Amino acid sequence: SRPCLAQRRIDPPRNARLSTMALRPWNVFQKTLFAVRPEAGAGRISVTTQLSLARARLQIQEPTIVASTAQCAAILLPASATVWLLLFAAQWRYSDPSRLRAVEEGPGGVILLDLLGSRLAAHLGPYQVPNFVRGRLHETPLKLLSEESLPDYKRAYALSRLGQISQRQVAIVDVLRLEPAGSTGAYNLLDVVTVLRSAFESQTVEVSAAPGSIGTMSTSLQDAAVRIVLDIVTALPPEERSVPGWVLSSLVAARGTPWSDGPQGEELKASLLLQLLRTPSNCELAAALPDVLDYVQQPGIKAKADTVFPIRAYLLSGETPDLLRRCSRLIGKQCPGTVELPPRAPRDTPSLQAKHDVRNAWTTALITVWWASFRAWRGVLDVNALIGMSRASASALAGMGVLEGLWRLEERMIESRWYYEDASLMLPCSAAMCLTNAVAWSWAFRLSALAPFVACRLVKDDFLDAYRSFEP
Under a CB-based contact definition with an 8 Å cutoff, are residues 236 and 282 in contact? Predict the structure, then answer.
């Protein structure tokens, strides 16, 4: 440092022009002082603007300090091991159904079980959902939902608990094959759909319904009920999807979230009806229902979402002619002569599942590019800055691709039957998964990919229903 020069006061003439290149910074006692030399050929730039430009150039010249992979691993490995041990202790303690039910009834128990049953917890430690099924945590929510007048907060709790179980296909299949306490015979799709009738009827009942009843249920709760129904229908084989006729009629007449949320809501409705009509008994019921026959014989729609962004409009588009034709063909196969098969119409967009997956990947890429560009920007927007931001974005996208691929592989393993049933295999695989995640996250931190990855897991996945499967 040169305090003698830095502390000199320079009083330029009033009419003097200042040059940006003439700024001389020196650090004195953790402060930056600037000595400005007037030059006659400089442009008309204010002192404040020159100081800002000088600070920006200093940031460009100073090397960015980024923690190495080893330094990140030294932090993440012990933290991951601690989380795994805590989840292992919870998995061992709550393997006793009585303890599990007792903690749910205690203060803070609902929040604790929400954390243990979350999708993120399944990647960080031993699998907790099998304990939920053995502890019959689904029975209380089903009893609550069977009540006609239920406050919204109780309905939200019941749907949340059922949603944690139904998001795992192996778990919900086991739930449907368990015998309810105090009765003979297992659950079936009819039992669950009956208590979740709000998924189809919430917007078709009278407006004068009593407060707290199905008719006044909020759209977010209706959307949660629809998600559970989709989970169950997708998890069950076609021969176990038998439903009463009122379900088919209510489905084709359903309104509200998500059935009326743009063109894709109509495609979702047609897709769910197609899955139900894969059961022969449901086709026989549909052949005797005029409203269902009218629905499957309509021309259908081909529409894009109402938005100024072309990619978003394409990914949120809806297309139903081919789905309705397949529904008509299934009904005609079981009951010949009941419906007239419309001509085949080619699709203009991919399937609902493909559009959903592409939108999920596109949103993840946008978040990653935004964060990497924000981290790489140094306050000056020029060609060199654009090149640096592009390189940082490319590196972050590569890191995000590795993390997303690893996460999807872990999801497949968690969804397997052996991981759900055999604890002797689940525990070592869970420990290996925890170790792999810690190493991969340490590596991705240097590429500015870890922050958007965490944001996607905590916020985006639930908002976009990222793990939704519309086809078995």
Answer: no
224 in the Ramachandran plot: left (φ > 0), alpha (ψ -120 to 50) or beta? alpha
Query: What per-residue string of b and e applies to 418-443 under the rule 16 or more CB within 10 Å gives b?
Result: ebbeeeeebbebbbebbeebbebbbb
Maximum separation of any 2 CA atoms in the chain, in Å: 100
- 15 three-state secondary structure: coil
Residue 54, token pair as written in the block: 């000088």
312 neighbors 305 (Cβ within 8 angstroms)? yes
* Torsion (CA) 432, 174, 144, 191 in degrees, nearest 10: 150
Q: What angle do CA 314, 204, 315 make, to 5 degrees?
A: 5
Question: How many Å apart are CA 91 and CA 134, to the nearest integer?
Answer: 12
Sign of CA dihedral 64, 65, 70, 75: negative
Task: Give the number of C-alpha atoms closer than 13 A to the C-alpha of residue 415, restricted to the C-beta side.
Answer: 13
Question: What pLDDT, in 10s, does the model give residues 52-85?
Answer: 676 666 655 555 556 788 899 999 999 999 999 9
